[in-house]
Fold this sequence. Notes:
The chain is mostly beta strands and 228 residues long. The chain has one helix at 218-227, and strands at 6-18, 23-36, 44-48, 54-59, 65-80, 83-94, 99-110, 115-126, 136-137, 155-167, 173-185, 205-215. It is elongated. It starts with 5 loop residues before the first strand and ends with a helix.
Amino acid sequence: GSRDTKWLLSGVAGITQVINRRTLMQFNYGLTVEQGYMNDPYKLLSLVNAQGDPLSAIYEKRPGRRTEQSFYWLTRHNIWDRDVASVALRYYTDDWGIRSQTLDFTFRRQSSDRFYWEPHVRYYHQSAADFYHVGLLSGQALPEFASADLRLAQFDGVTFGVRFGYTLRDGSLLVVRAEYYTQNGESYPREAVGAQRAYDLFPTLNASIIQIEYQFDPGKLFAKRKGG
Length: 228
């Protein structure tokens, strides 16, 4: 029956520089400040005994303020003809103790005037928040902040796939993207106790992604139909 609020202020400053006829670089700095109700009301933590058996559960509690910073660098290089390779690096840090690094690579191969294909590989790693726990021991004093949300845990994520694009005769573009994502974390953390050590506490996540996209200019599309 109670209510609470949260506010968020976010901004990005960047610069894009043409290095030469074939190379372009971009640098961004992002800053986000959040304050207020930061908890996820659907996340619980288990209270366990010394044998690792769950006795009860409590709601998580997160700090009421978060400051996030990110540093992003992108380079695009025209290798030959109309083929372009892109490499991006991103470093993220916040005052919850999370540090992350992202490496993203794409290569756009223009096979013809109408058709292109674009392989994509992305690697992501993050450390755990200072208050992340797989569970808490019953009978001990509760920490000020605690969460078992796997999004705040240490994990690695890898994405790889390919995009296919085809320009239709009316100038519209049809794009199909197929990717596979796998995420791995610390399955047997050191803080696990008793029976917890026998279980995979961070199951591997695998996801397949299929996306179909259609881009068109309404003005050109309907103008041609009227003219016909």
